[in-house]
Amino acid sequence: MDTTDKYFHPVSGFDLPRFAGVPTFMRLPFVGPDHPRLPDVQVGLIGVPWDSGTTNRPGPRHGPRQLRDMSTMIRAQNGATGVRPFEMVNCADLGDVAPNPADLMASMTRITEFYRSVLDHEIFPLTAGGDHLSSLPILRAVARGGPVGMIHFDSHTDLFNSYFGGTQYTHGTPFRRAVEEGLLDPKRVCMIGIRGSTYDNEDRDFADAVGIRVIPIEEFHARSVPDVMEEARDIAGLKETYISYDIDFVDPTFAPGTGTPEIGGPNSFQGLEVVRHLEGVNIVGADVVEVSPPFDASGNTAFLGASILFELLCVVAKKLSHSQMT
Ligand code: MN
Ligand code: MN
User: The domain spanning residue 35 has which CATH number?
Assistant: First the structure.
Protein backbone atom coordinates (compact mmCIF):
# COMPACT_ATOMS: atom_id res chain seq x y z
CA MET A 1 0.00 0.00 0.00
CA ASP A 2 1.31 3.42 -0.93
CA THR A 3 0.86 5.43 2.24
CA THR A 4 2.61 8.60 1.19
CA ASP A 5 -0.58 10.59 0.62
CA LYS A 6 -2.61 9.07 3.41
CA TYR A 7 -0.28 9.77 6.30
CA PHE A 8 1.70 12.75 7.50
CA HIS A 9 5.40 11.97 7.75
CA PRO A 10 8.04 13.49 9.99
CA VAL A 11 10.56 15.68 8.21
CA SER A 12 13.48 13.38 7.44
CA GLY A 13 16.91 14.17 8.79
CA PHE A 14 18.15 13.47 5.25
CA ASP A 15 16.04 16.33 3.86
CA LEU A 16 16.56 18.84 6.65
CA PRO A 17 19.12 18.23 9.42
CA ARG A 18 17.41 17.34 12.66
CA PHE A 19 18.83 20.40 14.44
CA ALA A 20 17.19 22.66 11.85
CA GLY A 21 13.62 23.75 11.30
CA VAL A 22 10.72 24.65 13.58
CA PRO A 23 10.44 21.94 16.25
CA THR A 24 7.14 20.07 16.40
CA PHE A 25 6.55 16.74 18.16
CA MET A 26 8.65 14.16 16.25
CA ARG A 27 8.96 16.64 13.33
CA LEU A 28 5.34 16.01 12.35
CA PRO A 29 3.23 18.73 10.77
CA PHE A 30 1.37 21.11 13.05
CA VAL A 31 -2.34 20.59 12.47
CA GLY A 32 -4.31 23.31 14.23
CA PRO A 33 -8.09 23.46 14.71
CA ASP A 34 -8.64 25.12 11.30
CA HIS A 35 -6.36 22.79 9.32
CA PRO A 36 -8.29 21.19 6.42
CA ARG A 37 -6.84 17.74 7.15
CA LEU A 38 -7.65 17.71 10.87
CA PRO A 39 -10.37 15.07 10.24
CA ASP A 40 -7.67 12.72 8.84
CA VAL A 41 -5.61 12.74 12.04
CA GLN A 42 -5.75 9.53 14.12
CA VAL A 43 -3.15 10.27 16.80
CA GLY A 44 -2.73 13.83 18.05
CA LEU A 45 0.31 14.86 20.04
CA ILE A 46 -0.79 17.63 22.38
CA GLY A 47 1.15 19.92 24.70
CA VAL A 48 -0.25 21.02 28.05
CA PRO A 49 2.16 23.78 29.17
CA TRP A 50 0.74 24.12 32.66
CA ASP A 51 2.09 23.55 36.17
CA SER A 52 -0.34 25.41 38.43
CA GLY A 53 -0.86 22.23 40.47
CA THR A 54 2.80 22.06 41.50
CA THR A 55 3.44 22.21 45.25
CA ASN A 56 7.24 22.22 45.35
CA ARG A 57 9.70 22.72 42.48
CA PRO A 58 7.92 24.14 39.40
CA GLY A 59 8.78 24.07 35.70
CA PRO A 60 6.64 21.52 33.77
CA ARG A 61 4.89 24.45 32.06
CA HIS A 62 8.06 24.51 29.96
CA GLY A 63 7.84 20.75 29.31
CA PRO A 64 6.00 20.64 25.97
CA ARG A 65 8.40 23.04 24.25
CA GLN A 66 11.48 21.15 25.46
CA LEU A 67 9.88 17.77 24.64
CA ARG A 68 9.19 19.02 21.11
CA ASP A 69 12.82 20.09 20.77
CA MET A 70 14.25 16.80 22.08
CA SER A 71 11.74 14.75 20.08
CA THR A 72 13.56 15.88 16.93
CA MET A 73 16.05 13.13 17.95
CA ILE A 74 13.41 10.46 17.28
CA ARG A 75 13.65 8.61 13.94
CA ALA A 76 11.01 6.70 11.98
CA GLN A 77 11.47 3.17 13.32
CA ASN A 78 11.45 1.62 16.79
CA GLY A 79 14.80 -0.13 17.25
CA ALA A 80 13.42 -2.73 19.67
CA THR A 81 10.07 -3.62 18.11
CA GLY A 82 10.58 -2.64 14.47
CA VAL A 83 7.33 -0.67 14.56
CA ARG A 84 7.11 2.26 12.09
CA PRO A 85 4.22 4.22 13.61
CA PHE A 86 4.12 7.03 11.05
CA GLU A 87 3.33 4.51 8.29
CA MET A 88 0.59 2.79 10.33
CA VAL A 89 -1.58 5.65 11.54
CA ASN A 90 -1.85 9.33 10.73
CA CYS A 91 -0.04 11.36 13.39
CA ALA A 92 0.17 15.12 13.85
CA ASP A 93 1.16 17.79 16.36
CA LEU A 94 -2.12 19.41 17.42
CA GLY A 95 -0.34 22.23 19.26
CA ASP A 96 -0.77 23.34 22.86
CA VAL A 97 -3.79 23.83 25.05
CA ALA A 98 -3.76 27.48 26.12
CA PRO A 99 -3.91 27.53 29.94
CA ASN A 100 -4.58 30.55 32.10
CA PRO A 101 -1.50 30.41 34.35
CA ALA A 102 -3.19 32.65 36.93
CA ASP A 103 -6.43 30.64 37.19
CA LEU A 104 -6.24 26.94 37.97
CA MET A 105 -9.96 26.17 37.61
CA ALA A 106 -10.25 28.08 34.31
CA SER A 107 -7.22 26.20 33.01
CA MET A 108 -8.80 22.85 33.82
CA THR A 109 -11.97 23.88 31.96
CA ARG A 110 -9.89 24.90 28.94
CA ILE A 111 -8.00 21.61 28.96
CA THR A 112 -11.17 19.52 29.17
CA GLU A 113 -12.79 21.49 26.34
CA PHE A 114 -9.70 21.06 24.14
CA TYR A 115 -9.71 17.28 24.68
CA ARG A 116 -13.45 16.99 24.10
CA SER A 117 -12.91 18.59 20.72
CA VAL A 118 -10.04 16.20 19.96
CA LEU A 119 -12.18 13.20 20.90
CA ASP A 120 -15.11 14.57 18.87
CA HIS A 121 -12.78 14.21 15.87
CA GLU A 122 -12.03 10.62 16.95
CA ILE A 123 -8.37 11.51 17.47
CA PHE A 124 -6.36 9.54 20.03
CA PRO A 125 -4.84 12.06 22.49
CA LEU A 126 -1.14 11.60 23.36
CA THR A 127 -0.16 14.31 25.81
CA ALA A 128 3.10 15.97 26.79
CA GLY A 129 2.59 17.76 30.14
CA GLY A 130 2.46 19.71 32.23
CA ASP A 131 2.36 18.68 35.86
CA HIS A 132 0.32 15.69 36.94
CA LEU A 133 -2.82 17.69 37.69
CA SER A 134 -3.10 17.92 33.87
CA SER A 135 -4.33 14.32 33.83
CA LEU A 136 -7.53 15.20 35.74
CA PRO A 137 -9.07 17.58 33.18
CA ILE A 138 -7.94 15.20 30.41
CA LEU A 139 -9.70 12.29 32.15
CA ARG A 140 -12.86 14.41 32.42
CA ALA A 141 -12.94 14.35 28.61
CA VAL A 142 -11.64 10.81 28.05
CA ALA A 143 -14.02 9.18 30.57
CA ARG A 144 -17.17 10.81 29.24
CA GLY A 145 -18.58 7.37 28.38
CA GLY A 146 -18.04 6.11 31.93
CA PRO A 147 -15.12 5.29 34.21
CA VAL A 148 -11.93 4.00 32.59
CA GLY A 149 -9.09 1.86 33.91
CA MET A 150 -5.59 3.26 34.29
CA ILE A 151 -2.03 2.00 34.32
CA HIS A 152 -0.02 4.64 36.15
CA PHE A 153 3.78 4.86 36.30
CA ASP A 154 4.98 7.16 39.07
CA SER A 155 6.95 7.26 42.28
CA HIS A 156 3.83 8.79 43.89
CA THR A 157 0.21 7.65 43.98
CA ASP A 158 -1.15 11.20 43.56
CA LEU A 159 -4.07 10.00 45.67
CA PHE A 160 -3.82 12.56 48.48
CA ASN A 161 -6.93 14.43 49.52
CA SER A 162 -5.73 18.00 49.99
CA TYR A 163 -2.79 20.26 50.64
CA PHE A 164 -2.43 23.14 53.06
CA GLY A 165 -5.65 22.33 54.82
CA GLY A 166 -8.13 22.32 51.99
CA THR A 167 -6.71 22.85 48.50
CA GLN A 168 -8.35 20.09 46.47
CA TYR A 169 -6.49 20.46 43.19
CA THR A 170 -2.73 19.87 43.13
CA HIS A 171 -0.43 17.46 41.29
CA GLY A 172 -0.64 15.25 44.39
CA THR A 173 -4.42 14.83 44.21
CA PRO A 174 -5.58 14.21 40.60
CA PHE A 175 -6.42 10.52 40.92
CA ARG A 176 -8.25 10.95 44.25
CA ARG A 177 -10.49 13.45 42.48
CA ALA A 178 -10.76 11.21 39.40
CA VAL A 179 -12.03 8.31 41.54
CA GLU A 180 -14.46 10.60 43.40
CA GLU A 181 -15.75 12.03 40.12
CA GLY A 182 -16.33 8.57 38.67
CA LEU A 183 -13.69 9.01 35.95
CA LEU A 184 -11.64 6.00 37.06
CA ASP A 185 -12.82 2.52 37.96
CA PRO A 186 -10.47 1.97 40.93
CA LYS A 187 -10.60 -1.81 40.59
CA ARG A 188 -9.08 -1.42 37.12
CA VAL A 189 -6.28 0.91 38.26
CA CYS A 190 -2.69 -0.23 38.77
CA MET A 191 0.01 2.13 40.09
CA ILE A 192 3.62 1.06 39.56
CA GLY A 193 6.89 2.31 41.08
CA ILE A 194 5.60 3.96 44.25
CA ARG A 195 8.37 4.96 46.68
CA GLY A 196 9.98 7.67 48.76
CA SER A 197 9.30 9.29 52.09
CA THR A 198 5.76 10.40 52.84
CA TYR A 199 3.86 12.46 55.38
CA ASP A 200 1.56 9.58 56.24
CA ASN A 201 -0.36 6.61 54.78
CA GLU A 202 -3.44 8.56 53.73
CA ASP A 203 -2.97 7.86 50.02
CA ARG A 204 -2.29 4.15 50.48
CA ASP A 205 -5.23 3.78 52.84
CA PHE A 206 -7.47 5.34 50.18
CA ALA A 207 -6.04 2.98 47.53
CA ASP A 208 -6.77 -0.03 49.77
CA ALA A 209 -10.27 1.21 50.56
CA VAL A 210 -11.31 1.60 46.91
CA GLY A 211 -9.37 -1.36 45.50
CA ILE A 212 -6.52 0.32 43.60
CA ARG A 213 -3.53 -2.01 43.15
CA VAL A 214 -0.29 -0.31 44.20
CA ILE A 215 2.99 -1.99 43.20
CA PRO A 216 5.72 -0.38 45.31
CA ILE A 217 9.23 -0.10 43.91
CA GLU A 218 10.56 -2.85 46.19
CA GLU A 219 8.12 -5.29 44.59
CA PHE A 220 8.88 -3.92 41.12
CA HIS A 221 12.61 -4.59 41.54
CA ALA A 222 12.01 -8.04 43.05
CA ARG A 223 9.94 -9.15 40.05
CA SER A 224 10.69 -8.97 36.33
CA VAL A 225 9.20 -6.24 34.12
CA PRO A 226 7.20 -8.80 32.05
CA ASP A 227 5.75 -10.28 35.25
CA VAL A 228 4.73 -6.89 36.69
CA MET A 229 3.26 -5.77 33.39
CA GLU A 230 1.30 -8.99 32.94
CA GLU A 231 -0.43 -8.24 36.23
CA ALA A 232 -1.04 -4.62 35.18
CA ARG A 233 -2.65 -5.78 31.91
CA ASP A 234 -4.84 -8.24 33.82
CA ILE A 235 -6.02 -5.48 36.17
CA ALA A 236 -6.82 -3.13 33.27
CA GLY A 237 -8.69 -5.92 31.48
CA LEU A 238 -10.21 -5.50 28.05
CA LYS A 239 -12.09 -2.28 28.65
CA GLU A 240 -10.97 1.29 28.00
CA THR A 241 -7.79 2.22 29.82
CA TYR A 242 -5.79 5.41 30.23
CA ILE A 243 -1.99 5.43 30.56
CA SER A 244 -0.38 8.07 32.77
CA TYR A 245 3.40 8.27 32.95
CA ASP A 246 5.03 10.60 35.48
CA ILE A 247 8.68 10.97 34.47
CA ASP A 248 9.65 10.71 38.16
CA PHE A 249 8.84 6.97 37.84
CA VAL A 250 12.38 6.68 36.42
CA ASP A 251 15.33 7.08 38.78
CA PRO A 252 16.60 10.67 39.08
CA THR A 253 20.00 9.50 37.83
CA PHE A 254 18.31 9.23 34.44
CA ALA A 255 15.53 11.78 34.94
CA PRO A 256 16.72 14.57 37.26
CA GLY A 257 14.64 17.24 35.54
CA THR A 258 11.45 16.86 37.53
CA GLY A 259 9.85 18.55 40.52
CA THR A 260 9.58 15.67 43.00
CA PRO A 261 12.37 13.15 42.35
CA GLU A 262 12.62 9.97 44.44
CA ILE A 263 15.72 7.77 44.49
CA GLY A 264 15.78 4.01 43.89
CA GLY A 265 13.72 3.92 40.72
CA PRO A 266 13.88 1.99 37.44
CA ASN A 267 16.60 2.80 34.95
CA SER A 268 15.84 4.42 31.60
CA PHE A 269 15.80 1.04 29.79
CA GLN A 270 13.18 -0.32 32.19
CA GLY A 271 11.34 2.97 31.76
CA LEU A 272 10.93 2.16 28.05
CA GLU A 273 10.46 -1.58 28.55
CA VAL A 274 7.32 -1.16 30.67
CA VAL A 275 5.68 0.75 27.83
CA ARG A 276 6.40 -2.01 25.29
CA HIS A 277 4.49 -4.39 27.57
CA LEU A 278 1.35 -2.28 27.21
CA GLU A 279 0.68 -4.02 23.92
CA GLY A 280 -2.80 -5.53 24.03
CA VAL A 281 -4.20 -2.95 26.45
CA ASN A 282 -7.28 -1.09 25.19
CA ILE A 283 -5.60 2.32 25.46
CA VAL A 284 -7.84 5.36 24.92
CA GLY A 285 -5.38 8.11 25.89
CA ALA A 286 -1.90 8.54 27.34
CA ASP A 287 0.29 11.20 28.85
CA VAL A 288 3.90 11.86 29.89
CA VAL A 289 4.01 14.50 32.60
CA GLU A 290 6.27 16.30 35.09
CA VAL A 291 9.27 16.96 32.83
CA SER A 292 10.70 20.18 34.27
CA PRO A 293 13.30 21.75 31.96
CA PRO A 294 14.64 24.24 34.55
CA PHE A 295 15.90 21.22 36.57
CA ASP A 296 17.08 19.35 33.47
CA ALA A 297 20.58 20.72 32.93
CA SER A 298 21.63 17.98 30.47
CA GLY A 299 18.34 17.77 28.56
CA ASN A 300 18.34 14.01 29.16
CA THR A 301 15.07 14.05 31.12
CA ALA A 302 13.26 15.62 28.18
CA PHE A 303 14.99 13.21 25.80
CA LEU A 304 13.77 10.30 27.91
CA GLY A 305 10.30 11.86 27.99
CA ALA A 306 10.29 12.18 24.19
CA SER A 307 11.49 8.57 23.89
CA ILE A 308 8.66 7.38 26.16
CA LEU A 309 6.18 9.33 24.03
CA PHE A 310 7.56 7.50 20.97
CA GLU A 311 7.23 4.10 22.70
CA LEU A 312 3.63 4.96 23.60
CA LEU A 313 3.01 6.07 20.02
CA CYS A 314 4.32 2.74 18.70
CA VAL A 315 1.99 0.74 20.97
CA VAL A 316 -0.98 2.93 20.07
CA ALA A 317 -0.19 2.78 16.34
CA LYS A 318 -0.18 -1.01 16.49
CA LYS A 319 -3.51 -1.05 18.33
CA LEU A 320 -5.19 1.45 15.97
CA SER A 321 -3.84 -0.18 12.80
CA HIS A 322 -5.21 -3.55 13.97
CA SER A 323 -8.63 -2.07 14.58
CA GLN A 324 -8.73 -0.40 11.13
CA MET A 325 -7.90 -3.75 9.47
CA THR A 326 -10.76 -5.57 11.20
MN1 MN B 1 2.60 12.13 39.56
MN1 MN C 1 5.49 11.67 40.88
Answer: 3.40.800.10
CA of residue 126 to ligand 1 center, whole Å? 17
CB atoms within 10 A of CB 318: 19
CA of 262 to the centre of ligand 2 (A): 8
DSSP per-residue string spanning 128-156: EESSGGGHHHHHHHHGGGS-EEEEEE-SS
Domain count, the chain: 1
Q: Residue 1: inside a domain, yes or no? A: no
Sheet containing 283-289: give its strands across: 91-96, 43-48, 124-129, 283-289, 241-246, 148-153, 184-194, 213-216
Is residue 64 included in any domain, yes or no? Answer: yes
Residue 319 in any domain: the answer is yes
For residue 2, how far is its CA from the centre of ligand 1 (angstroms)?
Answer: 41
**Does any domain span residue 16?**
yes
For residue 88, the 8-state DSSP code is T
What pTM did the predictor assign? 0.97
Residues whose Cβ atom is located within 5 A of ion ligand 1:
132, 154, 156, 158, 246
Least distant ligand from the CA of 193: 2
CA–CA distance, 156 with 195 (Å, rounded to integer)? 7
Distance CA 106, CA 112 (A): 10
Domain that holds residue 154: 6-325
> What's the pLDDT tens digit per position in 229-264?
999 999 999 999 999 999 999 999 999 999 999 999
Residue 20 to residue 155: CA distance in whole angstroms: 36
The least confident of 4-18, 92-106, 134-148 is 4-18
Residue pLDDT, tens place only, 99-119: 999 999 999 999 999 999 999
Tell me if 104 sits within 8 A of 169, measured CB to CB.
Answer: yes
Q: Which ligand is nearest to the CA of 250?
A: 2
**Ligand 1 centroid to 119 CA: how many Å?**
24
Ligand nearest to the CA of 170: 1
Bridge-based pairing of strands 148-153 and 184-194 is parallel
**Residue 175: count of CB within 10 angstroms of its CB:** 30
